[in-house]
Specification:
InterPro entries: ArsR-like_HTH (IPR011991), HTH_ArsR_DNA-bd_dom (IPR001845), WH-like_DNA-bd_sf (IPR036388), WH_DNA-bd_sf (IPR036390)
Helix content: 40-55%
Radius of gyration: 16 Å
CATH class: Mainly Alpha
Low-confidence stretches: none
Protein name: Transcriptional regulator
Organism: Lysinibacillus boronitolerans JCM 21713 = 10a = NBRC 103108
Structural class: alpha+beta
Domain HTH arsR-type: 12-89
Strand content: 5-15%
Strand order of the largest sheet: 1-3-2
Number of strands: 3
Mean pLDDT: 90
CATH architecture: Orthogonal Bundle
Keywords: DNA-binding
Shape: elongated
Number of domains: 1
Largest sheet: 3 strands, antiparallel
CATH topology: Arc Repressor Mutant, subunit A
Number of helices: 6
Amino acid sequence: MKDIFKGDELLTVLGALSNPYRLKIIAILHQEKQYVSQLARELGISRPLLYLHLQKLEEAHLINGYHEVSESGKAMKYYTLNPFSLTLNADVISQVANDITDKNSKE
């Protein structure tokens, strides 16, 4: 379980969590793995839009995607939630602030 993030990692995770659809995706995947079409239907969004959100969550290492072959022989892309814990307070921010690279300091 990931529970300690460095400066840039923390910014990536916070960015990934800053969208309501991404929070809903995490909530769904917390219950069970899901395949892309089912996630899109459950969220009521297009698959291309869903893939953008999934990419942000994968970049933050919060979810993992992989392919499985169904009983009918169809390849399906599934996603699972990676275990993580996020504690955010002034102490944590003070500890990671010096690890933030210049590319993130200008935003």
